[in-house]
Structure formats: C-alpha cells, structure tokens
Design brief:
The complex is a heterodimer of chains A (265) and B (297). Chain A is mostly helical and 265 residues long. Chain A has one domain (2-261). Chain A has helices at residues 2-13, 16-49, 55-65, 69-75, 80-99, 103-108, 113-146, 154-181, 184-210, 221-228, 235-261. Chain B is α/β, with parallel strands linked by helices and 297 residues long. In chain B, a hairpin with a 2-residue loop joins strand 9 and strand 10. Classes of the chains: A mainly alpha (265), B alpha/beta (297).
Chain lengths: 265, 297
C-alpha cells in the first residue's frame, strides 16, 4: 500500500492539469470576491444617495457593510466553480490510468484492485483538500484586502470542516463515475452535469410529489453545502450536513470498489 | 525443474464467447516459452489472466509453485498489448514512477534506459515517441525490479530490424545470464524460432500442443529425397531394410527420414534391386508449416 500511495502522490503532484485546475480555482475565487466588492461599491453609492430604503435594500446594505475576509472564507466553497473544477480534476486523474493503459502495469505487478482504488481515493481526497484550501485562502485574502479580515472563531472552523466533508462526498461521487466510465471525456461530462442535474431533478420531484421545496433535495450535497456555509445555521443542521457528506463518501467509495473489483483492467 | 507458471483448466468467457478454454500449461524456470496462435486465439487473454489483469471465469494457476499472491506477482515483469505509458512524461519519469511499484531503485532506471536504447531521449515526452521507442520503453518497464519471469506479448511489434535484433539479444542475454524465464507471444514465427526453448500452440482458446525444441526438430526433421522410376518397388525394397514408418511416398519421390541410413547406402540398395534413381536430394522440414497447421486445428 505504501508503494501505491507513493506512486499515486507522485503522479498527483506531477500532473499539470492538477496545477491548472488549482490556478483556475484561485482565479475564480478571487473574481467572485472582486465581483461582489464591485457590486457593493455601486450599491452603496446608490443607496447613500437615496432618501429612504426598503427593508430588503437595508438588509443588502447591512450585508455589504458587514462583508469581511471571514465571510468570504465561509462561503468560498458554496459556489459551483470549486465543485466543477474538482470534477474535472478527479476525472482526469482517475481516468489517466485507463486511457493511457497504465492500470495493467499496476495490477500486473501484484497490487490488488482494492489497494489501487484506495490509493487513488487518498490522492483524490488530498487533491480535494488542496482545492478547498486554495479556494478558502484566496477568498479570505481577497475579502480581507477589499474589506477587513474579521475574527474567525471555533464555530467557523467547524463550518469549514463540515464543508470539507461535503466536498469529500463530491470527490467520492466523481471517483465513482470515473472508474465506471474509464474515459476522461465521459467522466468530465458526467461530473459536470450530474451535480446540477441531480439537484434539479430532486427539486422538481419535491414540488411535483411532495408539494414543497426540500423533502428530497435537502439530502443532496448542494443543499448540505448551502447549510454548512450559513453562519447562522443550527448545530444539529450543521452536523447533519457534515454527516450527509460523509455518507455520500462512504456509499460511493463502496460502489467504486464494487465496480473496480469486478472488472478486467 | 521448478515450474514458474502452471495453469489448470484456465478459462475466460466474454458473454457467450469462450476466449480461453480450459488451458492447462506449464512453464519451467529458465524456459523461453514461445506462445503461438492466430489473432484472437486467446494468447493475450491468457497472459492477462496470469497477470491478474483479467479475472478467470474458471480454473486456476500457480506461480513459482504456489497460489498467486502479491509478493509472487511482484516477481513478474510484463508487456501486454500496447505498452501502458504516461504520454505526457519523459521515458525516465515513466520508469521512475513504475520503479516505485516494482520496488526498484531509482538508479536502476538509467541502466534500463541504456539497455533498451532510450538513454538519449532526455526530457522528450513519450507521446512524441515512435511506436518502436514506446515498445522499448514498455520492455524497460517490464525489466524493473529484476523480475524472475517476464511476460511479453508481441514484444517486437513496431520495431525496425535492428531493434528486433537488439530485443532478441536482450532476451537471450537475460535468459542465459540471469536465468530469467520468458513467456513470449509473437506472430513472427521466424523470430520466435530463434529464441524459444519450448512452444505452446493455442487455437480457438484451446492449447493444442506443448513441445520442446527437440520435439520440434524430431517432428520437422530433414528427409532424404529419391526420385525413382518405380516407387512401388522402391517402397518394398526399402521397407525390408528399415521401418516403413520412416518412408513416405510422394508421387515418383520417396522421402526417407535422415539419419537412419546414408544416401549412398539407400541408393545402392535401390540400384541393386533394379530401381533407377534419377535424383537424390535433401528436404528440410518446415517448422513454420507445422505451427500453421497446429494453429489451424
């Protein structure tokens, strides 16, 4: 297992696409904060000239005046861009051994399929952590530069931890599609489409069948991420979001094992 | 002799099609086992099962006389079908990556690059290599970690004549100097004939025959050819002097297995019996024909 981990981590840190995706993640995180800053400048200018403001306008104004690096840090992963880039990276990383036919060299040297998948999952999880870290650090730095740092407390750290668990759920889902399809193109397409499509389908079913907005969709990862990015969320909801991420990670890891162990390479 | 690989009724089915059908074969330490069969005969599938890349539908195999296990599998190097390479990396980086898996030292990679003639490729990406260069690198990867048994599927595919000769010499050198056992499949029977010590013929997924070089020589041995005016009488004369099974009639010709009697002695007997001999020659048995016949069975 040690050899497999060394092998996969060497591959990870020497894969150009990994650094490209990380750089794009940082860029999008910065642009997202910058866009919010630009909007806040315009809105505050307009609102300061206005004689009276509606309650919603006042709330928006309050939001902008309270903006900080801390706020950006906590909402850094809630944008779809990190998830999408993670989906692209995981598909490229996992499928490379299938498309370049190097999987047979690994299995042919006596490594088990389970060990191989475990090493891939470990490297993908590490990649996921770095994606989260880059998005969070960039958002925090940009938010601090545009507004102020803001004080980070232990509850904020708990929020971030639960967000990372949700991202692990996404990672396991992306790994599953990649080992199932074995083609980078197909896996990228599915990794981009599935998160959006599944959330949409669950919402439609909620409205059509349950006549409300969140009976099923609250069990989807995007909903868990929204919950874990809310500073005012209740502790029990926060824990539920984190556990949901962990459950997704466990289920899709199991499914990936089933797929890998039963197929030829 | 210690068996390096022994299969027992190894079978692989893809849906309703049987690619490998109850193959039981044995490869001993030090063998260069030439695996011969037409395209789709089941050679590659059998190799892939032995390397655990494909899961058998039925049957089992042993490596080095034991049940297959990770540590035994680690003693095998392989190149099956097209070489699995990271195209966006250099040859050296490819070797360094796979050296981790083969428990090989990083410094061994330079020696292997030299061995397979890729020492001068520097940082050139493997994606820009020719087919022959990729094949050499694939062989290099198979050599990592000082394997005791190497499985090569069509190893000289894409190589130029000089490359073919180099690979042939490398295989012979590794076999003689380091005692490495080889399982090699090739369509180029002539090339296989220059190195193999044992052969296995596979046809439609079934192992038709296993034979040593000595068996092959015996079956395809040279024959003396006599063109005579009365082959019936000649058969009677020679049939009294030797085992009739060693004589074959082909029209006006009689083919006599070489080594039983000299051509001069046979000629004298025929002439003394009143059979006119108009020509005497030697006919070599074609082992390629033998294999082609076997593959077609």
């Amino acid at each position: 297992m040690g050899n497999l981990l060394r092998f996969e981590f060497r591959k990870l840190f020497r894969q150009t696409s990994f650094y490209v995706c990380l750089a794009v993640t940082a860029l999008l995180a910065f642009l997202s904060v910058y866009a919010m800053y630009s909007v806040s400048q315009v809105v505050m200018e307009d609102f300061s000239a206005a004689a009276d403001l509606s309650p919603s306008e006042l709330a928006m104004l309050a939001g902008f005046t309270q903006a900080s690096g801390r706020g950006q840090l906590i909402t850094a992963l809630s944008s779809d861009s990190v998830t999408l880039l993670l989906g692209i990276f995981v598909a490229l990383f996992i499928c490379s051994d299938y498309t370049m036919k190097t999987a047979k060299n690994i299995i042919g040297r006596g490594y088990s399929r389970a060990g191989w998948l475990s090493a891939k999952l470990a490297a993908s999880a590490c990649g996921c952590l770095l994606f989260c870290g880059v998005a969070m650090a960039t958002s925090y730095a940009a938010g601090t530069a545009f507004w102020k740092a803001g004080e980070i407390n232990s509850r904020d750290l708990m929020l971030l931890l639960m967000q990372v668990l949700v991202m692990f759920g996404y990672t396991a889902l992306f790994v599953f599609w990649s080992v199932l399809l074995r083609s980078s193109g197909g896996a990228i397409a599915l990794n981009l489409i599935i998160p959006m499509l599944l959330g949409l389908i669950l919402t439609v079913i909620d409205y059509l069948v349950f006549k409300n907005g969140d009976t099923l969709s609250k069990y989807w990862l995007a909903s868990a991420m929204t919950t874990a990015s809310d500073i005012t969320v209740k502790s029990e909801d926060l824990w539920r979001a984190g556990l949901l991420g962990a459950a997704y990670a466990a289920v899709f890891t199991g499914l990936s094992y089933l797929v890998v162990s039963r197929r030829d390479v | 002799m210690e068996p390096v690989l022994q299969t027992y009724g190894l079978t692989k089915r893809f849906g309703g099609r049987t690619a490998v059908d109850h193959v039981s074969m044995r490869i001993d330490r030090g063998d260069i086992y030439g695996f011969i069969g037409r395209n789709g005969a089941g050679k590659t599938t059998l190799m892939r099962m032995v390397l655990t890349q494909a899961l058998p539908s039925e049957g089992r195999f042993e490596l080095f006389g034991q049940k297959p296990a990770s540590d035994l599998q680690r003693r095998i190097g392989s190149l099956v079908e097209t070489p699995g390479l990271y195209n966006n990396c250099s040859a050296k980086e490819n070797l360094l990556r796979f050296a981790i898996l083969a428990d090989a030292k990083a410094r061994d990679t330079d020696e292997i690059l030299n061995m397979v003639g890729l020492a001068g490729t520097g940082s050139k990406r493997v994606g820009h290599f020719s087919l022959g260069m990729k094949q050499r690198l694939g062989i290099g990867i198979a050599l990592l970690g000082h394997p005791e048994f190497i499985v090569l599927d069509e190893p000289i595919n894409g190589l130029d004549p000089a490359g073919i000769q180099e690979v042939r010499n490398l295989i012979l050198q590794l076999n003689r100097e380091q005692g490495i056992t080889f399982l090699i499949s090739s369509h180029l029977l002539d090339e296989l004939g220059k190195i193999a010590t044992r052969y296995g013929i596979i046809s439609n997924g079934r192992l038709v025959e296993e034979l040593t070089v000595e068996d092959l020589r015996e079956r395809c041995g040279s024959k003396l050819r006599f063109v005579v005016d009365d082959p019936e009488k000649a058969l009677l004369v020679l049939g009294r002097a030797m085992d009739p099974a060693c004589i074959e009639r082909r029209g006006q010709e009689l083919l006599v297995q070489e080594g039983i009697q000299t051509a001069a002695a046979i000629n004298r007997q025929l002439v003394e019996a009143g059979v006119a001999v108009s020509a005497i020659g030697r006919e070599s048995g074609s082992w390629e024909d033998y294999f082609i016949e076997g593959m077609g069975r």
